[in-house]
Amino acid sequence: MVSLDVDDTIAAIASAPGSGLRGIVRVSGPRTLALVETLFENCDLRGFPNRIRPSSTRGQIEIDEGLKVDIDLYLWPTKRSYTRQPTAEFHLIGSRPVLEMVLNKICGGGARLARPGEFTLRAFLSGRIDLTQAEAVLAVIDSSGEQQLDTALRQMAGGLAGPLGSIRDDLMGTLAELEAGLDFVEEDIEFITRPQLLKQLESAGQKLETIQKQISLRDRGTEASRVVLWGEPNSGKSSLFNALLGTQQSIVTEVAGTTTDFLVGELVLKSMKLDLVDTAGAEERSEYVSSQAQQHRIEQQEQADARLFCIDSLRETTPWEKQQLSNLTTACVVVLTKIDLHSSKSTRLTDLSQQIRDVGFDGPLVATSSESGVGLESLGEEISLAVINSQSTDQSIVGTTVLRASESLRDASAAVGHAKNAVIHQLGDELVASEIRRSLEALGQVVGAIYTDDILDLVFGRFCIGK
Ligand code: GDP
Q1: Which residue has the higher pLDDT, 465 or 174?
Q2: pLDDT tens for residues 153-175?
Q3: Minimum-distance ligand 1 atom for the alpha carbon of 235
Q4: What residues flank ligand 1, with Cβ below 6 Å?
Q5: From CA 339, how far away is CA 427, in angstroms rounded?
Q6: CATH of domain 141-217+395-448
Q7: Which numeric CATH code is attached to 10-129?
Q8: C-alpha pair distances (Å), 178 with each of 58, 283, 433
Q9: pTM of the complete model
């Protein structure tokens, strides 16, 4: 659950896990400056100028009795920081234990540990960024490959927030003029002429259409996207197939293979129709499986829009799995299966995830149990994203935004269309105004001017701590 409380001062390690040369601890909130002054020896913040760029200084913090570490302190003392609250970054040696000791010291001084994505959440709540930019921040962190990074960076810089903001401003202006006219209807004062009104609505409609084109997926007609389960025998594919379909009233059809069949189940995720394919044993790379069956399996893989690579979390990764992971072509989600069979103290999942990262896989990784259902919802999200990323006609908007905002954008566009028709057919200004309000409401949902806790959970729940 995200926290809307911005009065606390929050702190977290902001550098990536693992050993790096330098590490960062980030602090933000009203008590930041007081904290810095207490922690740093001989630190006088009065001289810190009020600039957009951070001011920096060097100093030492005592993290244990007699044990001091050198720190480069970067300080944004005013609301011109990322979160629009006083913010400090402590840059120091990248050792995890030392970073944790510094973090403890900061929390001992009155800060609390930040929740995942909380710095970006504050940037959003303070109005520094809109929801599409918050999603882009996450996409920058998660991006694998130049194209994805480029898309995310452009969106973070306001590639979508800018045009959406200007359409909202224009529509609000039009609405104000219309409403003023309605207020003075008796006096016969016209604040906006019909041709002007039509022109403004047409312009908003065109801009919305351009954004919708960017967001729309490749037209597949009624054809469903294909998601193929894949992995070693006994890795839990069939169980996952059933678990994913179990929650929906689905039709499972057996498609005759050669020596073995494969199953196709219909799955609907985020209004997308998907065919989930279980190659049901055809993947076995043994001599018992005919080459025709293997050919079938390869064809399924090649036609896939996304693949779910199941890895049994109880076993070590096999050489075949490692080789597959380092050679990916289609969008792939790695699924660590059977996690209900681990004791709560086991570090196996963390170790296994690290092994998978070490072979070079930097895509989505979800731990699931087909027994208990844990992780299936997150897996659903990742499947939708993988499919969207593989299908966007114009990859200029990050997948999470496409998923979240498509429907609202469609509503916004439709309402502008209705408003235009109402003007053309002279249906009265009340009706035109109410359609413009509907459009503004839908746009408000896209940028986050109107939001619910669920939406914030959806967007910020995916972040890691420290961002
Ligand atoms: P496939 O050969 O990859 O399709 O693997 P299966 O789905 O047939 O699973 C192999 C074995 O692992 C079966 O005995 C399943 O019951 C078991 N299994 C699969 N997923 C889970 C899970 O999430 N939890 C538990 N406890 N067992 C599982």
Answers
A1: 174
A2: 888 988 899 999 999 999 999 99
A3: 3
A4: 231, 233-239, 310, 337-338, 340-341, 369-371
A5: 60
A6: 1.20.120.430
A7: 3.30.1360.120
A8: 58, 64, 7
A9: 0.69
